[in-house]
Amino acid sequence: MKNTKKETTIYDIAQKLNISSATVSRGLQDHPAIKKETRKKILETAIELGYRRNIIASNLRRQKTNTIGVIVHELNSNFITSVLAGIEKITTEAGYDLIIAHSYESYEKEVANATNLFHKRVDGLIASLALNTTNLNHYKQYHDKHIPIIFFDRVEERSDSAKVIIDNYKCGYQATKHLIEQGCKNIVLVTASLTRNVYQQRYKGYRDALDEAGLPFSESNVLIKDLSEQCGVEAAEYILQMNPRPDGAFITNDFSAAVCMKTLKENGVNIPEDIAIVGFNNDAVGKIIEPQLTTIDYPGIDMGEIAAKSLIEQLAGDTKINQISTLVVRSELIVRGSSLKTHS
């Protein structure tokens, strides 16, 4: 038999305690005008009767839901996990809840997520674009309603929206220059789609470091992959078949780099003696693989905290939406054994 028991209301609590509904309402909000003893009785009675506050209705009356939407392109990533931890730390302190949506690297899914979060009336949005996102039309509804958006990591550089990024060009340049300084002259780049800002800028840094050193560039030395576990295997297999075999590799994802190193070692390749390798992200796996992986430190927690603080400042009216353009988070090259040819 279907349970038709109605929800307990503040009027039920008021009737049981023989006080006004207004007193109950203020008591449930811990209002100082209500005596402490009365507040205690109200809370105890609310628990006894199974009362649940309708937070959504209460917030909507104030035209605010105290929720922030987050769209990420993947969840199986130490970097994204770190970003979410940074966002959660700041938003919790500010009294906001998070609704996290996952695009699975799909533009269509990202569009659906953006629309769904819009209709859930989030107060603001933090988003990182999917690999094949070609336009930002699905975010126009937010701009039209003056709902602030912060894009992070993967962004559309031509957009006027606020962005939190690292200097991907500098990182690509530093990683490649480091390999050149170790004596590498034939360097492979393993990266993802150059349509996304992060990979396009790292590629430009790689190209310019080669050019500055007077080393030739070859399209065959650039592998465009999905930076997955399988990518690491495929990159290693490609390197093993190359003639002449490269003496350096810049792989723009630590997990793919670690899998690539493992596969190369299983095929008799010595690292860094035969090939020096640099990864990207400073994931924990880089300290487990042997030799330890040289990498670019990409502080996800910092990025998450900065994105969340920027959004909350806009929500609080401390900064206007059009006052923020691009915020650049620090990054640095961490040198470990996988690239140190000159010390091997």
TrEMBL record:
This is LacI family DNA-binding transcriptional regulator. It comes from Flectobacillus rivi. It comes from the Bacteria. InterPro entries: HTH_LacI (IPR000843), Lambda_DNA-bd_dom_sf (IPR010982), Peripla_BP/Lac1_sug-bd_dom (IPR001761), Peripla_BP_I (IPR028082). Keywords: DNA-binding, Transcription, Transcription regulation. PANTHER family: HTH-TYPE TRANSCRIPTIONAL REGULATOR GALS (PTHR30146:SF109), LACI-RELATED TRANSCRIPTIONAL REPRESSOR (PTHR30146). The lineage of its organism: Bacteria, Pseudomonadati, Bacteroidota, Cytophagia, Cytophagales. Residues 8-62 form the HTH lacI-type domain. Gene3D superfamilies: 3.40.50.2300, lambda repressor-like DNA-binding domains. Pfam families: LacI (PF00356), Peripla_BP_1 (PF00532). PROSITE patterns: HTH_LACI_2.
